[in-house]
Amino acid sequence: MPAYRDVGAFDDRARSYDQGRRGRLHHAISDRTAALATATAAAPQRVLDVGCGTGYLLRVLAGRYPGAQELAGIDAAPNMIQTAKRLTEDERLSFVTGVAEHLPYDDASMDLVVSSTSFDHWSDQGAGLAECARVLRPGGHLVLVDQFSQWLIPTLAAGRRGKARTRRRASALLLGAGFDRPDWHHLYAVIINAAVATRSS
Fold first, then answer.
1. pLDDT-based confidence at residue 37 (cuts at 50, 70, 90)
2. Mean per-residue pLDDT, 47-55
3. E-strand spans in 121-168?
4. Beta pairing partners, 144
């Protein structure tokens, strides 16, 4: 498994991921991500969550988008996908095991792509963003939420070398992947921020 994917750790945590303090934090960030997504895209027909985990964010979005035809989730951890399937009753939702760098969806097939606290685990962030742009229709939106802060610069010299953990680095990758310049939003605590970007026409 490529570096930083951390699949084993997430597989081990899948059944208890939505519980306890970590679960409450995950839900709080996801709820704010959903609010930002619905403020960005009022009525998307097809939504994709990259790094969907247990599917909590996608289930929240399903409630906010009653007219959506399809809400798809993909995650690298098989146990997360199994948990997501077990917790989901809405037939519009589907979940598959896979990675951001190779999304199994057609070109221009999605109106909205979201990703919450998954980006830092992608092995090739530029390739993953290029895939997000590929599956989005022209004018479609990406809501990308993760740890982006100047406070994280010291971590770039150690375990997260080469990762985009600042707004500047992430913005450069988004532009390179085919998105317009992103709008940045403070989302949670000090370091959790969101980039909202539109696929260039």
1. very high
2. 96
3. 136-147
4. 115, 195
User: Phi/psi zone of residue 139: left (φ > 0), alpha (ψ -120 to 50 degrees), beta?
Assistant: left
The predicted structure's pLDDT at residue 157 = 47
Q: Which residues pair with 141 in a beta bridge?
A: 112, 198
**Residue 194, H or E segment:** strand 192-198
Sheet holding 183-188, edge to edge: 93-97, 70-75, 46-50, 110-116, 136-147, 192-198, 183-188
Question: Which has the closest alpha carbon to 142: 134, 150, 133?
Answer: 133
For 198, half-sphere exposure in the C-beta direction (CA atoms, 13 angstrom radius) is: 8
Average pLDDT over residues 154-182: 79
- 200 in helix, strand or coil? coil
pLDDT tens for residues 109-131? 999 999 999 998 899 999 999 99
Q: Please tell me the total number of residues recorded for the chain in this structure.
A: 201
Is pTM, for the whole model, over 0.85?
yes
Q: DSSP letters along 1-64, please?
A: --TT--HHHHHHHGGGTTSHHHHHHHHHHHHHHHHHHHHH-SS-SEEEEET-TTSHHHHHHHHH
DSSP state of 138: E
Nearest CA among 28, 97, 88 for reference residue 63: 88
State what percent of residues in the chain have pLDDT above 90: 71
**Cβ distance 41 to 112 under 8 Å?**
yes
